[in-house]
Amino acid sequence: MAEFWTAYLWPLLWIVIKILAIVVPLLLAVAYLTLAERKVLSAMQMRRGPNVVGPFGLLQPIADGMKLFFKETIIPSGANRGVFILAPMLTFSLALIAWAVIPVGAGLVLSDLNVGILYLFAISSLGVYGVLMAGWASNSKYAFLGGLRSAAQMVSYEVSMGFVIITVLLVVGSLNLSDIVMAQKGSFGMFNWFWLPLLPMAVIFFISTLAETNRHPFDLPEAEAELVSGYNVEYSAMTFALFFLGEYANMILMSAMTSILFLGGWLPPFDIAPFTWIPGPIWFALKIAFCLFIFIWVRGTFPRYRYDQLMRLGWKVFLPISLAAVVIVAGFLVTFDLVPA
Amino acid sequence: MILQAIAFWVFASITVAAAVMVISAKNPVHSVLFLILAFFNAAGLFVLLGAEFLAMILIVVYVGAVAVLFLFVVMMLDINFAELRQGFLQYLPIGLLVGLVLLVELAVVVGGWVISTDATARATAKMPAVDQVPNTDALGQLIFTHYLYLFQGAGLVLLVAMIGAIVLTHRSRPGVRKQNISDQLARDPKETIEIRKVQSGSGI
Fold first, then answer.
1. Does residue B75 sit in the same domain as residue B129?
2. CA-CA to B88 of 20 to 30 Å: which in A239, B33, B54, B164?
């Protein structure tokens, strides 16, 4: 019995505790990201934003959650029941399981996979299924059009994202996320992080993440002016809430990915005293918050792209540039004998 | 060890069950979704074998790209499958007969198949020791060092297939208005706009 406890039960329990330690802060962050978005947008538009529920509107996410929780879940009679219910669950759980490989600090990671970045890429490419299934199962033309748009858009931008990741991998020489962060450590602090040496790639990656998460200015799948609200138009109450939470969790995930690949993960901006006192996870959270702010800033600033412009940007601009960058970076590394062992 | 065995049986049984559902599901969209489930569990089997790179590539390429496009097409099909299945029982004996013949032929061919020990020795000699190198490195060494020409050849075949598909399906329709961004950027205000002083009381 004692052996059973030490060999099976305790490791299982320990993993569950670690999972909770990741998921609970993540869900809180998702809830408060919705509030942060409304506050930042309102500041940009010179208005107050939510300020009634709780001090400074801090309890607004809880009020929103309660509202969605107590509403009735409506399943359209023409819908394909199973797929209709499965779609939001899939979106939400995919947004959560990706966090298994994200290192929030030195050694602070649930599963230190040696193909971590591929795992992240794989999970983020699966996000399209939730949208596609929702669009099809709703049996509504608006939802269907939204789903189709999303599928085409996500597949297009994944390609250039993949090439950007390859340029980073060429410089690092490993697919492990902790190795990618440690490879950015250097004597110039934040100027050693890959955003500067691989600057055009960092920008392309960030714009691709906007498209991958269906955010402004690429939110064509839910373009409310033409598609009502796109793939989730038939959803209500908790099923809608799961889509909503999944979208915001995906935003945080993509920001975390950008932070790890280009902003040095948990590393402090300079390796000297006042910066090194602050623990790594806090730096990581700050970098994620910075990326999320840009997400919202972009939403507050740019008009929506037209669909053909979106496709043109993905296939005719980003794909050739990132493909050329793979060749250039590889050539540079070989010429100057910098290829990592 | 027992956990691995449990994981294997779970992945393997779901793979087989999903594969059966792919061909027996009434709704084609459900078939594709079951196909994705089968891919997913096959990736799980790869992980159990220690081939995590292949597992991730299977998900990225097949689930993330190929199956999406597949689903895309199947979702837009408007076929009444109940109608298609009407003659099913009538043709079942013929189908079974054809399947049986193929199965016997396969058994005869594969049963008499002997791989020469020389060939296996030559192929395994180049394989890096799996316990020393991570399998991503091992695959890289095999593909990009020992079998580079074959790899390039495979790439060329795919390129030809891609260009062929584009040539076959591309048609230029006259009268389609397109946005040409370089034309728009090349426009010069001096050539396109004329500014005139208009006298009040008299038109242009």
1. no
2. B33
What part of B 43-72 touches A (C-beta under 8 Å)? 52-53, 56-57, 59-60, 63-65, 68-69, 71-72
pLDDT tens digit string along A74-121?
888 888 888 888 889 998 998 889 898 999 888 888 888 888 898 998
Q: How many angstroms separate the most distant Cα atoms in chain B?
A: 102
Looking at the structure, tell me whether residues B74 and B131 fall in a common domain. no
**Is residue B9 located within the same domain as residue B74?**
yes
Decide if B118 is inside a domain: no
The tally of domains found in chain B comes to 2
More confident call, B80 vs A97: A97
Nearest CA in chain A to B61: A122
Asked whether the predicted pLDDT for residue B134 surpasses 70, the reply is yes
For residue B4, tell me if it sits in a domain: yes
Residue A127: predicted pLDDT:
83
B42/A contact by beta carbon, under 8 A: no
Residue that wins the pLDDT comparison between B85 and A239: A239
CB contacts, 8 Å: A144 with chain B: 75
Chain B partners within 8 Å of A125 (Cβ): 59-60, 63-65
Where helices occur in B25-87 by DSSP H, the ranges are 28-48, 52-57, 67-76, 81-84
Q: Which of A244, A286, A300, A3 is nearest to A130 (CA)?
A: A244
Q: Which domain holds residue B38?
A: 1-79
Q: B99 touching A, CB under 8 A?
A: no
Q: Provide ipTM, 2 decimals.
A: 0.83
Q: Are A259 and A288 in contact (CB under 8 A)?
A: yes
